[in-house]
Amino acid sequence: MAKSDADRTTIDLFENEKRPGRPKTNPLPRDIQLKVNKRNQIKRDRARGLKRIEFKVSSELYQALSDMAEAQNISRSVLIETILQEKLAINR
Asked: Domain named Ribbon-helix-helix protein CopG: which ranges (predicted)?
């Protein structure tokens, strides 16, 4: 059987090959790991009844929200949710 240098799935062919650095703990490449992690995070959020909202803001507003969240020791998303809840309660 021919051995391909790019094939890392057949461990017994490479048991004597020493490679520098920390051994891989996940067989998937990093970009696929990120996609899998994001998919799992979305599933966890859905299970908790959370919905996703995305919007773009200016860098000044972004920094102001980040600073305010840090001052209150909460995440930016929790701060934004609190602001939205307060605003909706006022307008009812």
From this structure: 51-89
Check residue 7 and give its pLDDT. Answer: 58
pLDDT digits (tens, 9 = 90+) for 21-63: 777 788 888 899 999 999 999 999 999 999 888 999 999 999 9
Count of CA atoms in the C-beta half-sphere (13 A) of 63: 3
Neighbours of 72 (CB within 10 A): 11
Q: If you write DSSP's letter for every residue of 24-55 in order, what string do you get? A: PS-SS-HHHHHHHHHHHHHHHHHHTT------
Residue 72, C-beta contacts closer than 8 angstroms, at least 6 positions apart:
79
CA angle 65, 42, 78 (to 5 degrees): 25
What's residue 36's pLDDT? 93
* CA-angle at 67, arms to 75 and 46, nearest 5°: 20
- Sort 41 into a burial class: Cβ within 10 Å, 0-12 / 13-18 / 19+: exposed
